[in-house]
Amino acid sequence: MPDRVEHVLFDADGVLQDLPGGWYAAMEPYVGDRARAFLHETWSDELPMLAGRGDYLPVLAASLQRYGVSVPVNEVYDAVWKNIVLIEESLEIVRALKRNGYGVHLGTNQESYRGNHMRTALGYDDLFDVSCYSYDLGVAKPDPTFFTQAATRIGAAPSTILFIDDTPRNIEGARTAGLPANQWDFTQGHDLLQTILTNHGISTHA
User: Fold this and answer.
1) pTM above 0.85?
2) Are residues 132 and 150 in the same domain?
């Protein structure tokens, strides 16, 4: 028999939160039809910062300058990277799990500026029992080490922690580390998330 799931570890983007209209549309006011190219470049540049190595804002500032953007980097960062809308239906499931005695935790790839914004302005530090940000752990998903470190922080066996994420490679990384894991994003509807939880013996009902 598999171990009883006692904890749920949630990804953030695509699961708990969204960027309205998407990243490309958010960058278009600054770089026009080069938004896709710009973002893929800066996401590549950002990878070390996701693992806690380096400072992202100077890197972003250099990219903006290279693309001829004169708007201050903080203004662009606030308008795009901090433009986060919470998915209330997802958060209500988190709260219901917490009420029912399950451990609820956050497992997300973020550099420090966006991560700190999520911790404080979005209230995630108050919502979750344990928060596992990649910049803080020093390793990013899908590396299985991210998940073994998360399990250590949670203080539970990996087999008792269900991981929910919208990206297939992150699901694979979690399973490699011994966590049961399911791919899901909010566009699939919260009835499906409820079904996934039920299939793992987890109840959100009072």
Assistant:
1) yes
2) yes
**185 & 121 share domain:** yes
| Domain identity same for 178 and 156 | yes
Write the CB contacts of 157 (distance below 8 Å, at least 6 apart in sequence): 3, 151, 178
Region of 83 on the Ramachandran plot (φ > 0 left; ψ -120 to 50 alpha; else beta): beta
Alpha helices in 67-165 (DSSP H): 73-80, 88-99, 112-120, 124-127, 134-137, 144-154
Amino acid at 163: F
Q: What confidence tens digit (pLDDT) does each residue in 66-125 have?
A: 999 999 999 999 999 999 999 999 999 999 999 999 999 999 999 999 999 999 999 999
C-beta of residue 142 within 8 angstroms of C-beta of residue 172: yes
Number of domains in the chain: 2
Contacts of residue 203, Cβ cutoff 8 Å, sequence gap at least 6 = 100, 197
- 29: helix, strand or coil: helix
Yes or no: say if 63 and 41 are a contact pair by the CB < 8 Å rule. Answer: yes
Q: Which residue has tokens 């309205």?
A: 20
**Parent domain of 109:** 7-18+85-199
Q: What is the DSSP string of 30-69?
A: HHGGGHHHHHHHHHHHHHHHHTT-S-HHHHHHHHHHHTT-
14 and 116, same domain (yes or no): yes
Tell me whether residue 2 is in a domain.
no
